[in-house]
């Protein structure tokens, strides 16, 4: 029997000689079938990526409505107002969590909202394509549909105390601070006032003006935004 190194040496010389003569040398093949993903797995991954791209490029609009019911300025604070929005949405069978477009003496939607978008009424009408569009002073459509998708009577005033930029509105220098948000939305009387916005317009007054004061005993609506 030939030594192993002699066999290897002869085999190498045979391969080199074959190359020199232009012969084809058959090399052992390596199977990758065990590591290659199946076509069904690849298609599932492509479908998942396609769906994600669609969601990023075409996000589902956040629902927006003005409440069908009206309330005094004693809303139970910002948390109480948010609860009113959630209850209204639940009664109408709407999914999601909602917050009221409302500002007190320390914060407004700019600090309280997730600030996503686009935003749309319940009939699909877009009012803003994003937070920047919502807070630039002009809506694409008025917020005039309630949680059931019904048109509210004009002017449909809602409690707000919020600047067009989404911040809480600063108090009027001629009035106590409490007289711009019904004492942080906990007061119901004729001797205090809060600011309101009109649901029948797309301009700045949809959220409030510096002179849009309403007695806290009045019954107004709330703007509710899905988060």
Question: Would you give an account of this structure?
Answer:
The protein is an alpha+beta fold. It has a single domain (62-226), classed as Mannose-Binding Protein A, Chain A. 28% of the residues lie in helices and 14% in strands. The chain has six helices and eight strands, in the order ααβαβαββαβαβββ. Strands 1, 2, 3, 4, 5, 6, 7 and 8 form an eight-stranded mixed β-sheet that branches. The longest helix is centred in the first third of the chain and has 19 residues, at 39-57. The radius of gyration is 33 Å and the shape is elongated. It starts with a helix and ends with a strand. The model is unreliable at 1-21 and 50-55 (pLDDT under 50).
In brief:
The protein is an alpha+beta fold and 227 residues long. Helices cover 28% and strands 14% of the residues.
Topology:
Blueprint: H1 4-20, H2 39-57, E1 62-66, H3 77-91, E2 98-100, H4 109-112, E3 119-120, E4 126-128, H5 131-134, E5 157-159, H6 182-185, E6 193-198, E7 213-215, E8 221-226
Parallel strand pairs: 1-3, 5-8
Antiparallel strand pairs: 1-8, 2-8, 3-4, 5-6, 6-7
């Amino acid at each position: 029997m030939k030594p192993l190194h002699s066999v290897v040496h002869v085999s190498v010389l045979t391969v080199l000689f074959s190359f020199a003569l232009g012969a084809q040398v058959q090399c052992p093949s390596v199977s990758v079938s065990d590591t290659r993903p199946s076509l069904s797995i690849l298609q599932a991954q492509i479908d998942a990526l396609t769906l994600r791209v669609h969601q990023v490029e075409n996000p589902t609009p956040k629902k927006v409505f003005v409440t069908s019911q009206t309330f005094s300025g004693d809303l139970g604070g910002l948390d109480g107002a948010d609860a009113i929005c959630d209850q209204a949405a639940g009664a109408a069978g709407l999914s999601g969590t909602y917050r009221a477009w409302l500002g007190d003496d320390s914060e407004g939607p700019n600090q309280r909202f997730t600030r996503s978008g686009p935003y749309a009424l319940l009939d699909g009408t877009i009012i803003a394509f994003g937070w920047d569009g919502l807070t630039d002073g002009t809506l694409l459509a008025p917020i005039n549909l309630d949680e059931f998708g019904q048109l509210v009577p004009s002017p449909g005033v809602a409690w707000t105390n919020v600047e067009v930029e989404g911040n809480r509105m600063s108090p009027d220098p001629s009035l106590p601070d409490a007289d711009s948000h019904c004492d942080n939305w906990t007061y119901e009387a004729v001797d205090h006032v809060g600011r309101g916005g009109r649901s029948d317009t797309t301009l700045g007054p949809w959220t409030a003006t510096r002179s849009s004061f309403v007695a806290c005993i009045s019954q107004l609506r709330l703007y509710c935004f899905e988060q």
